[in-house]
TrEMBL record:
GO biological process, one term: ubiquinone biosynthetic process
Origin: domain of life: Eukaryota
Pfam families per record: polyprenyl_synt
Protein name per the record: Decaprenyl-diphosphate synthase subunit 1
Organism name: Tenebrio molitor
Length: 172
């Protein structure tokens, strides 16, 4: 999905979240929900499970986008700034636009002009884009934990809580 030239920053971020849901969060949400359905659980438990997976998936992708800016190529197994090199504006870039509107034309041209990737990478690091992305990921993990705490205490419920902590604190 590409971002159109007339989109506002809010529309861009809404588009990013929709894309993130479709790419990552829906897979996790529906996988977790399917377990409850196969186990014959009631609709309320299936809904809680779906929302848990949705929040976990959104957090996972937000952390992945953050790691693209802060991890080494060796740690990630892919080049640093890989998303920028692919022309993708992820959460750190979109948050950085608030402080550095000069990122907007770079987003529109998909970071294709010489120096765009390096300049965008630098502006993201100078902004609060990384911190804001981490904060949003933390909010989604906290919501996932809140939902997991609605379940009956068990080793499985504890595993859901551990999974949320892992997603938030992973290094690759």
């Amino acid at each position: 999905m590409q971002l159109g030239s007339k989109e506002t920053e809010n529309e861009r971020f809404a588009h990013y979240l929709t894309k993130t849901y479709r790419k990552t969060a829906s897979l996790i949400a529906n996988s977790v929900k399917s377990v409850t359905m196969l186990a014959g659980a009631d609709e309320q438990l299936s809904d809680i499970s779906y929302q848990y997976g949705r929040n976990l998936g959104l957090a996972f992708q937000l952390v992945d986008d953050l790691l693209d800016f802060v991890s080494s190529s060796a740690a990630m197994g892919k080049p640093t700034a890989a998303d920028l090199k692919l022309g993708l504006a992820t959460a750190p870039v979109l948050f950085a636009c608030e402080k550095y509107p000069e990122l907007n034309p770079m987003i529109m041209r998909r970071f294709q002009e010489p120096g765009d990737v390096e300049r965008a990478f630098d502006l993201v690091h100078k902004s609060r884009g990384l911190e804001q992305t981490q904060y949003l990921a933390k909010q989604h993990c906290q919501e996932a934990v809140r939902l997991a705490n609605l379940l009956v205490e068990s080793p499985y419920q504890k595993g859901l809580i551990v999974a949320a902590d892992y997603v938030l604190n992973r290094m690759k």
